[in-house]
TrEMBL record:
KW Transcription (keyword) present: yes
Gene3D superfamilies associated with the record: 3.40.50.2300, lambda repressor-like DNA-binding domains (1.10.260.40)
SUPFAM superfamilies in the record: lambda repressor-like DNA-binding domains (SSF47413), Periplasmic binding protein-like I (SSF53822)
Protein name listed in UniProt: LacI family DNA-binding transcriptional regulator
InterPro entries assigned: HTH_LacI, Lambda_DNA-bd_dom_sf, Peripla_BP/Lac1_sug-bd_dom, Peripla_BP_I
Domain HTH lacI-type positions: 11-65
MF term (GO), any: transcription cis-regulatory region binding
SMART domains given in the database record: HTH_LACI
Keywords of the record: DNA-binding, Plasmid, Repressor, Transcription, Transcription regulation
PROSITE patterns: HTH_LACI_2 (PS50932)
Regions annotated as coiled coil: none
Lineage of origin: Bacteria, Pseudomonadati, Pseudomonadota, Alphaproteobacteria, Hyphomicrobiales
Tagged with keyword rRNA-binding: no
The organism of origin for this protein: Rhizobium acidisoli
Amino acid sequence: MADRDKGPHKVTSFDVARVAGVSRAAVSRAFTPDASVSPKTREKVFQAAKDLGYRVNYLARSLTNKRSDLVGVVAAGLDNPFRTLQIENLARVLIARNFRPILLPTSQEADTSTVIGQLLHYAVSGVIVTSDAPPTEICEQCAAEGVPIVLINKGNDIPFVDRIISDDRMAGYLAAAHLIDSGARKLAVMAAPAISYTARRRSEAFIARCKQLDVEAQLLQVRINDYKSGYDAAANLASSGIDGLFCANDYMACGVVDRVMQGRSRDDAAPLSIIGHDDIPQASWTAYDLTTIRQPCDLQAEQTVDLLMSRMAEPDLTARVEFTPVTLIRRRTA
């Protein structure tokens, strides 16, 4: 009765070592990626762990090693389908490389110190900061703690902090050239350049290319690069005479398409050619069939984790920047 009151026995690495007939150190090496242990010993340890129901406590291990296998992924704008796609790909690559992603949602208005505290308390091995998340203070504090960082689609040039940037210049050029080739002559780009590095770069490249091709182009500035901003801003497009529009992302472009399509038959000739950016899953839906610029999340994730791991191995490397190529995807809207 007394034994029953104590509850079930918690399986430890000592139990695994006893059943496998190896030392506790061998058990630790078997569960450590790239550690020196024979295949036979690893197999014996894994089988014993499976039979006993043993799971490695990675948080406890981090207290011993002063660094965990956790990688913090700091992200904002989680309502945007592209962010979901981006985080999914990052998580998949991190797990394949024997890391464990921990998501920390934030925003432009959030208390950055809270995010920093969470990252450092978990003794993360590295940090990935996506676009729209505030990076500067996070980078400074994590760098002071010796935590490697990679920024995605952010303009901040910070010593020892690497960046992955989508080729926004090419995106703007591709969108302008395609709209002009499609017959549009009064063009615009819709973006919130004040808060988004990528929106600013894409809109600048688009307008510059239009100018080179001697075609009129203007910036339709919105507050946020989201669906509602696109939907609301599209109310004035019909009276503006604009016949070609490049949206800084697909999320906003979907809002534009929905507003433009209101009150019209889908068989009507579209008076406005629209191009988005990102190629989110919704872009290919029949309701949108959106021409867009694809930003390959799978390749971007591989590039990001490659940089992060090399930074872990050599913390004093000069800050590096790599570009992710983009591709025009032609659909019905342009």
